[in-house]
What does this fold into?
Amino acid sequence: MEEEHSMSVVFSFKRSSGCAAASCAAPGAIVLHGKKPCTLLLIHGLTGTPNEMRFLAHYFHRKHDYSVFCPRLANHGAPIGILKKSRWEDFYASARAAFEQVRTAHTGPVFVSGLSMGALLALLLAHEFTGDIAGVSCLSPTLFYDGWNVPWYASIVLPLLCLPPLKYISYFKEDPPYGIKNKALQQRVDAYYRNATIDDTKGVADYGYPFFPLTLLHQLRRLARYLVGILPSVQVPVQLIQAREDDMTSIRNATFIYDRIRADLKEMVLLENSYHVITADQERGTVARKMDAFFHRILSGGSQHA
It folds into this structure.
């Protein structure tokens, strides 16, 4: 495990540039059309980017000729002043719209996988569209920020910062390791994050936002509370993959979900050499293979818990 670093809190009174989300949105949605009937919808994390799902997208497209889609969630890529005003319902609406497009355009099995907050959105889709989703793979699901890199005082300070007026001017400035154990990738992210300003968007399409608005933490907490209430009604096959040394969210997140869903087929996989962003970290190949094997079990009619 790395030497512990703490996220720093910064305050900014800057207002939005006034640019509409549609005209300022960064490019980067992944669209890969395959010839096989299976389709995979990937959902990136909060303040993240489709780029963090790129390895998985190309793995399933190249190996199995799946059609793979990873939309950019609502207002991601826009100036941070616009993103910070978003609600979790906005993010779910954009994921839902992408799923409905996939369901309309493709007739074969549809799998859904999400990273961090994207994993929670994937479970919401599974709850709403039980009969239309073949299976879900949740990657580093984030119900609680309780990883080893989260300061001990976070449980006391964060609820206070999430209250008005502080939540409107408060941001986290993330420090290393940025959810990444791989040193080379960590250094590339650090080169951008270390010197980025709060309104800087030039590297967002590749690395996500270096600043995390506290308003979005409040929205994530709202989403988590809602999801906890509907977990017992999730019945589609669910896989949970998380790193034992996840720096942002402990494996309590995966076990909490595993223990409450009522799927006949459910599986939990723990990684030994990664941090939070397991889709891009040291074991991304392992993540892809575990997902691949789980989807194959579903297509083959498997039903045992793992």
